[in-house]
Amino acid sequence: QVQLVESGGGLVQAGGSLRLSCAASGSIFRINEMGWYRQAPGKQRELVATITSAGSRNYVDSVKGRFTISRDNAKNTVYLQMNSLKPEDTAVYYCSAGISTGWYLSAKGYWGQGTQVTVSS
Is residue 56 helix, strand or coil? Predict the structure, then answer.
């Protein structure tokens, strides 16, 4: 059984910062790509940022220069540092990871339960 547990969401004023964390636990053999997605009310879930096991990063244009994704492979944890937050960043943020539970098994996608980020104007 694999679990992803997020933390760090909350309420912040525009221009402020938050740091999200997501820790993977359970029968983990290897974690490939990890990422953050978000879903605002009435909108589809969208990709925010991803990071490979080698550290290669990708961001959606709307957060470039403001958000930074990082990971600690020893702790099976991915982070999202969010600076210069805007009201339009308000959403439920979900972490995801491609995880293999055995050397002979292909990676499967797992999701966290989500954490609310609210940015007030």
Answer: coil
Token pair listed for 55:
């550290």
User: Could you write out the DSSP letters of every residue in 17-55?
Assistant: -EEEEEEEEES-SEEEEEEEEEE-TTS--EEEEEE-TT-
**Among candidate residues 120, 112, 43, the one with its CA nearest the CA of residue 78:** 112
Tell me the per-residue pLDDT of 44-100, one tens digit each, with 9 for 90 and over: 999 999 999 999 999 999 999 999 999 999 999 999 999 999 999 999 999 999 999
Angle CA(69)–CA(76)–CA(35) in degrees, nearest 5? 35
Distances (CA, A) of 16 to 6, 7, 35, 118, 120: 20, 17, 22, 11, 10
The overall longest dimension of the chain from CA atoms, in Å, is 50
pLDDT value for 105: 87
Q: What residues contact 16, with CB distance under 8 A and at least 6 apart? A: 85, 119
Closest among 30, 68, 35, 29 to 51, alpha carbons compared: 35
Rounded Cα distance, 113 and 92, in Å: 9
